[in-house]
Write a structure and sequence with these properties.
globular; 7-stranded parallel sheet; alpha/beta; Rossmann fold
Length: 267
């Protein structure tokens, strides 16, 4: 499923899920613009790994919470690549910047979550689309359960922001359909080398055991490469009829029923 000759911008791709996406696209012959906010060293390491896979690209610093940074980032993409076939919105702020429950989250934390997701997606897509020919691919990385449930209280800002971004995917999908540009959201389950690894060690161990014990039917957590594989599939020509969807990439986690004991669900 080669994507030779294409160009991609993946926000937040210096590490974690974004890096997994960038490396998978590089394996398919895509040149990748690697966006980072603070960790230039990690971005350079990702670029080196992209080049090891026979592709090329560049790193670009930008804080997607800042509209001027988004404009500058896309201008750099235009100057380096000329065109853009793939845009992946993956960046998010560090957990402490938004992680508070609904009764205590500050306006600044709320704005940080919203600006990094819904607002950044709105502005980035509008800046990216003029660089795209017909048949471009736009993908947002979300976490759909965070917007449907209310139990993970400190996730309220990001849950609301991700839900707004998912809604924007549907609106953009309808707006861009006549050009053959697809717009979809991917919702990973729990992924190694992601937000999971920012939690205390005891919490990480609990989550791993929970999912390995059966709450993820495939019996493991996901990897950044798993999400990269899904992005690559959506970027293929064969996926041109899929648009406006929020797709779970979670090893079956979203199939489980929280109202039933695991022993019953296992049959």
């Amino acid at each position: 499923m080669a994507h030779d000759g294409k160009h991609a911008l993946v926000t937040g791709s210096s590490r974690g899920i974004g890096r997994g996406i960038a490396l998978k696209l590089a394996e398919q012959g895509v040149e990748v613009a690697i966006n980072y906010r603070k960790n230039e060293s990690a971005a350079k390491d990702t670029l080196a790994k992209v080049q090891q896979r026979g592709a090329d690209g560049f790193i670009v610093q930008a804080d997607v919470c800042r509209p001027d940074d988004i404009t500058r980032m896309l201008a750099r993409v235009k100057g380096e690549f000329g065109t853009l076939e793939i845009f992946v919105s993956n960046a998010r702020p560090d957990v402490p910047e938004f992680y508070q429950g609904p009764m205590s989250i500050t306006v600044e934390q709320w704005d940080c979550a919203m600006n990094s997701q819904a607002k950044a997606f709105l502005l980035s897509v509008r800046a990216a689309v003029p660089l795209m020919g017909d048949g471009g691919r736009i993908i947002a990385i979300t976490y759909a359960p965070g917007g449907r449930t209310g139990s993970w209280q400190p996730w309220v800002g990001m849950g609301a922001a991700k839900s707004a971004m998912e809604s924007l995917c549907r609106y953009f999908a309808a707006a861009l359909a006549k050009r053959g540009i697809t717009v979809n959201a991917l919702s990973p389950g729990w992924i190694e080398d992601s937000v999971l690894n920012t939690l205390p060690d005891a919490a990480q161990d609990m989550i791993r055991k929970w999912h390995q014990g059966g709450w993820t039917p495939m019996g493991r957590l996901g990897t950044p490469a798993d999400i990269g594989n899904a992005v690559s599939l959506l970027c293929s020509k064969e996926a041109g009829w899929i648009t406006g969807q929020t797709i779970a990439v979670d090893g079956g986690l979203s199939l489980m029923d929280a109202g039933l004991p695991l022993e019953i669900q296992r049959g």
